[in-house]
Amino acid sequence: MRRRQLAIYLADQGFEVIGVDSSPTAIKIATENAQKRGVGCRFIIADLLGDLHEVKETFNFGYDWKFLHHIFPEDREKYVKNVYNS
Fold first, then answer.
1. Span 16-44, mean pLDDT?
2. For a designed S-S bond to 21, which of 26, 65, 68, 70 qualifies (C-beta 3.0 to 4.6 A apart)?
3. Does residue 49 or residue 3 have the better pLDDT?
4. Cβ(85)–Cβ(59) under 8 Å?
5. Using CA of residue 5, residue 79, residue 60, residue 17, what is the dihedral sign?
């Protein structure tokens, strides 16, 4: 199950879900798919290696799907700190 599908699935199960991706195209597709399924999850375009100012919420759970191992080792600490602080 791909990450956007997992977000939609979890929202359909009653979880409050916010999906984050740096790709506007991915966010558009995910939003359209959620609307088609009639589920209320939100998707945000954000740079996970940036300051994440787009993400205002705090979370009880974060799920990484194939991102951490795709970034350069020198950027991993920044990514982990960003996720931890959200």
1. 92
2. 26
3. 49
4. no
5. negative
CB 77 within 8 A of CB 85: no
Do the Cβ atoms of 4 and 33 come closer than 8 Å? yes
- DSSP code for 54: T
9 contacts 43 by C-beta, under 8 angstroms: no
- For residue 42, the cross-strand partners are 18
Residue 37 has phi, psi (to 5 degrees) of -85, -10
Residues 6+ apart with CB under 8 A from 20: 43, 44, 45, 46, 48, 54, 55
- Domains in the chain, CATH or no CATH each: 3-48+60-85 (3.40.50.150)
- In degrees, rounded to 5, the angle at the alpha carbon of residue 57 between the alpha carbons of residues 32 and 81 is 105
